[in-house]
Amino acid sequence: MLDVRAIRDDPERFRAGLARRNLADAVDRILAADERRRELVRRVEELRAEQNRLSKEIGAAADEERARLIERVAAVSADLKRLEPELEAAGSALDELLAATPNVPHDSAPDGFTDEDAVEVRRNHGAPPAFDFEPRDHTALGALLGVLDTERGARASGSRFVYLLGDLVFVQLALMRHALDILAEEGFVPVIPPVLVREEAMYGTGFLPTDEVNIYRIEQDGLYLVGTSEVPLAAFHMGEILEEADLPRLYAGYSTCFRREAGSYGKDLGGMFRVHQFDKVEMFAFTTPESSWDTHERMVAIEERIIGNLELPFRVVNIAAGDLGGSAAKKYDIEVWLPGQQRYRELTSCSNCTDYQARRLRTRVRRTDGSVEVLHTLNGTATAIGRTLIAILENHQRADGSVALPERLHPYLPERLRVLEPRA
RNA sequence: GGGAGGAUGGCCGAGCGGCCGAAGGCGGCGGUCUUGAAAACCGCUGGUCCCGCGAGGGGCCCGUGGGUUCGAAUCCCACUCCUCCCGCCA
Questions:
Q1: CA A291 – C1' B10 distance (Å)?
Q2: Cβ contact A42 with chain B strand, < 7 A
Q3: pLDDT tens digits, residue range A91-104?
Q4: CA A417 to mean position of chain CA atoms
Q5: CB of A61 under 7 A from strand B?
Q6: What domains can you pick out in chain A, each with its CATH number?
């Protein structure tokens, strides 16, 4: 949620920022709603002050005086009864506008509206691997190795569900441990969070109301299945005021993620590139406003380190302003080269949400001088396990279909397991 | 699924319908004392919104939402959440 007072102070800045999302006119609608609300606040508060004054006098007054005062206060109360609903309506109108308005993009986010407009920041290790044979895609490899079963996944649960089998399960767990070890070393507190959350948490993180169609809802209990552990990690400090000395607070969440993938019909069908359920290790940071940009760079660097350890060719892209998620002011994606698709595909994503999420979550920082302000939140993928498995299979495959597992994973794997071998 | 309690400030905990944004304690900050520290003593110690350049003034907040009343932390209604016991269960 944007800060209305900041918009009031410098509307031009917000107009220009939101124009990059094609939403320049939102500023004027917000300002009009804010003006109306403040006018009503002024009038209602004057009446309440008058009512309070008179009521206090009544308490102290003698009986004959009392009747007269009660009559006077009745007139004030009548006015209040009329104005209070108007004030409430004006407040909701403003809240709805603000809830539907996304964050202002950072200056360093490039112009544009689609993934095509993202700007490449850097690549790792230059070129994608050259194969002296025709590389298979992960679906073919998964079948050959006997480690992926999408047909039975569909039978049990529908399309976009997959069974992971055999040694690939050990690779998944190794990826999880590998990421958590690095994050713990970097000062992140490991967390296994709840994956069902209340509406408040979904709203606070900005997934509701805008992303509703992509969220699984448990009607009976009024709970939502999280699409990322960003949600319960952000909600961890919902409504709290953190001490400046305790920042940054860094968390590494490991959870299963659930996504309806509505509106992606026909996209990335087959295999497990786009599925309804996958596991992910996620970074989440609560920082002071002045340090969030440094933290953002640091988190991307951690992502690069993790992917580098897995010996995967990747590139970092800076997402276009108009293509950002609603809460983000800036986002880096890391795209990994997939030989099966002959292109780079999104593997991780790292966003600085500045104060947008924190204001909705009411998460603030108490400065050492005692003042209180909204803090900044960031989130980033440490390892999206499903897609990382795909990248490992496709990039480390050999002519016979076997797959060599990256050395950095060896300590986390069973000793016999260094290569995934095709089924006999 | 059945039953019983509870929700007040960073934490614990009091609170006759008006003098209660709220006693007291703990914690925190500052000070006195001390070579230093502890102890003791003294003082300070909520958030938010509106008006104002500021000094300051005002509104709201005792789980949430309604109601009664001139006036509600206190009375009434509904809801939510938490805890405990029994049952079931990974």
A1: 25
A2: yes
A3: 888 888 888 899 99
A4: 35
A5: no
A6: 4-100 (1.10.287.40), 115-420 (3.30.930.10)
C1'-nearest nucleotide to the CA of A47: B59
pLDDT bucket at A295, cuts 50 / 70 / 90: very high
Gap from A238 CA to B7 C1', in Å? 18
Q: Residue A309 corresponds to which tokens in the numbers above?
A: 């350890």
Give the nucleotide with minimal C1' distance to the Cα of A74: B70
CA of A375 to C1' of B32 (A): 38
Reported ipTM: the value is: 0.81
Cα A95 to Cα A101: distance, rounded to the nearest angstrom = 10
The Cβ of residue A402 has, within 10 Å, a number of other Cβ atoms equal to: 15
Q: Identify the residue whose tokens are 């302000």.
A: A373
Average pLDDT over residues A95-122: 92
Both structure tokens of A135 = 């590389």
In degrees to the nearest 10, what's the CA dihedral of A110, A113, A117, A118? Answer: 60
Q: Is the CB of A399 under 7 A from strand B?
A: no
Mean pLDDT of A306-332: 95
Give this prediction's pTM. Answer: 0.91
A380 strand-pairing partners: A283, A350
Q: What angle do CA A270, A276, A281 make, to 5 degrees?
A: 110
Q: Is A32 (CB) below 7 Å from strand B?
A: no
345-364 of chain A touching strand B, CB 7 A cut-off? 364
Q: CB of residue A175 closer than 7 A to nucleic acid strand B? A: no
Confidence band of A125 (pLDDT split at 50, 70, 90): low
User: How do A148-149 and A223-225 pair as beta strands?
Assistant: unpaired
Q: Which pLDDT tens digit goes with each residue over A4-62?
A: 999 998 999 999 999 999 998 999 999 999 999 999 998 998 888 888 888 888 876 66
**DSSP label at residue A399:** T
pLDDT of residue A416: 96
Taking the CA of residue A8 and the C1' sugar atom of nucleotide B18, their distance in angstroms comes to 40
Q: Is the CB of A58 under 7 A from strand B?
A: yes
